[in-house]
Amino acid sequence: MMETTDKIDFTFTIEKKIKEQFSDLCDEIGIPASAALGALVKQAVRQQRMEFSLADENGFMPDEAVKIKSRIADVRAGKAEEHSLIEA
User: Fold this and answer.
1) Which of 17, 30, 32, 60 is most buried as measured by Cβ atoms within 10 A of its Cβ?
2) What is the Cβ-side half-sphere exposure of residue 25, based on CA atoms within 13 angstroms?
3) Is the dihedral of CA 72, 75, 77, 79 positive or negative?
């Protein structure tokens, strides 16, 4: 007789583009997306921690990104001063 395990479906919402990119990554690795997600969940439970970065696609943390976007807006609004580089 085949041994059965208790399994449930786990549903969540994610952006279509991210889902497609994750699916492509899983295809490249050769593992179904559901198996990859299951492995990530099992690892988090086993290690009692989750490691991920809050950095954006440019490598900036949220507070850094806010400052940079503000500076960009200042430059576009003409509120920035131009400085010459002086090499010694």
Assistant:
1) 60
2) 11
3) positive
**Span 31-47, pLDDT tens digits:** 999 999 999 999 999 99
* pLDDT > 80? residue 88: no
Residue 84: predicted pLDDT? 85
Q: How many beta carbons lie within 10 A of that of residue 31, not counting itself?
A: 14
Rounded to 5 degrees, φ, ψ at 66 are -60, -45
Q: Indicate the DSSP class of residue 59.
A: S
- Rounded mean pLDDT of the chain? 90
Sign of CA dihedral 13, 33, 48, 58: negative
Rg of the chain on CA atoms, in Å: 22
Tokens of residue 13, six digits: 């919402």
CB of 54 closer than 8 Å to CB of 61: yes
> Could you give the angle at which helices 16-29 and 33-47 cross, rounded to 10 degrees?
90
Tokens of 2: 């085949």
